[in-house]
Amino acid sequence: MRSFFDRFRQMHIILRLFIIIIVVFIGFGAFIHFIEPENFPTIFDGIWWVVVTTATIGYGDYVPKTVMGRSAAIIMILIGVAFVTFYMVTIATSIFKTLDALKEGSATYKGKEHMIIVGWNERSKNTIQHLHLINPTLHIVLIDDSLTENPLADRNVYFVKGNSTRDETLKRANIEKAGTVLITADQHMNEHEADMQSILTLLAIKGLNPMIYCLVEILTHEQVNNARRAGADELIETYLLSSYIMVTSVHSHGLTTPILSLLNLTKERRLALLTATEELRDKSFSDAVELLIKNEFLLIGIKKGEEFLIYPSPVITIDVNDELLVIVH
């Protein structure tokens, strides 16, 4: 009996109140049935009268007639209405607390196979918008310590406020059950400090979930190897991307727009990697181009192991484990 009361005290207050209300309803419903069986033919009729009365609706279809019945009704009203009112207020308070926690980023995410993005900046904002264009049902958890509330609450984005290097913050983002993590560079730090922060975050994430796929934005060449040693599955070397576009624009005016158009193919899901089929294996690159273009795929490169060959020699052979980089019409 004592263990039952211990478990009861450990229940959530809403569940405890609900159990008490059910007991009160059944108890008074049974009691009024036995006191006035002619006015309340069944126990259910008594329970119905208790529910309607304590809810202050009062249909009047069942009414106690005796002094004892009305005395029981008075006690029931004093007890039942108090519990029901307190129950409703507690539910409303709990709902508002939950909404505030979601808005402020103090709640814990319960889903799985979601994507986590670390850091709020213009890059992460655009990334989230493009990801939702590709997959509107994708669940994204944003971790950031500088925001005071969820900046994208209307876009199926869950916000967790906190330091991304701390286990407590990562666990609130449910890092153990996430599918992918994108770590963006902290815009409030200089490049070297931002890279160090990204690597510390990566180490914390891999410590909690070694198998999760991590993409890390790196701003300096010096930290590339450190990020790989820390367990980065893929590096986004922002300094290289921006410098390549700048150099190309300086030497060949007007190429910035077509380069951005090529990059935009990824957003439209038109740039893809395909596994080489039986039909394409042992074929030359030029033969594969002709075969794929009939299916509205433009072959532009081959991935051999970890190496990408963009527009390789026409005679190079496609092997069993190769992947093909194509543009989908």
Brief account:
This protein is 49% helix and 16% strand.
Give the CATH topology of the largest domain.
Answer: Rossmann fold
The structure class reads: alpha/beta
Secondary structure tally: strands: 10
CATH class of the largest domain: Alpha Beta
**Main sheet, how many strands, which sense, barrel?**
6 strands, parallel
Radius of gyration: 32 Å
Strand content: 15-25%
- Counted by DSSP, the helix tally is 11
- Please indicate the count of domains: 3
The coarse silhouette is elongated
Low-pLDDT regions: none
How would you portray this structure in words?
By secondary structure, the chain is an alpha/beta fold. The protein folds into three domains: 2-103, Helix Hairpins; 115-242, NAD(P)-binding Rossmann-like Domain (Rossmann fold, 3-Layer(aba) Sandwich); 270-328, 2-Layer Sandwich (Alpha-Beta Plaits). The protein has helices at 2-10, 13-35, 43-54, 67-104, 122-134, 167-172, 191-208, 224-229, 238-251, 256-267, 285-293; strands at 115-118, 140-144, 157-161, 180-183, 213-218, 234-237, 271-275, 297-304, 307-310, 323-328. The strands form two sheets. Strands 3-2-1-4-5-6 form a six-stranded parallel sheet. β1 (115-118), α5 and β2 form a beta-alpha-beta unit. The longest helix has 38 residues, at 67-104. It is elongated. The mean pLDDT is 84.
